[in-house]
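Data card: per-record layout.
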Amino acid sequence: ENDPKMRLVLCAELDGEVVGSGRLSEVPDPDAPKRTRLELGYVVRADHAGRGIATEIAIGMVEEARARGHDRLYARAARAHIASQRVLEHAGFRIADRTGEDGAVHYVVAL
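The structure for this 111-residue chain is written out next.
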């Protein structure tokens, strides 16, 4: 897809198969309506969950955002998705807001 807000996509391969991906996207900043902020998103195939792939993707995307000169990176995880929250914590994120209007826990990492 050609999304002008999408800044970078990374694919994780294992034995020649894509098993996960991460993306950095510009999204509206809820604290400053006229601005955007950089947000991390990732997904791993269910049959490869629990192997550290999501954590590696998240760490790689944090490093890439840092290398591109960004000073912060944001992410969200569903309140019920504890594994995703742990991925973000292992990648250096800290909780910014537990009560997001979207029902998610919001995270930030200073780069």
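Known properties of this structure: The longest helix spans residues 53-67. The mean pLDDT is 90.

See the next section for split statistics.
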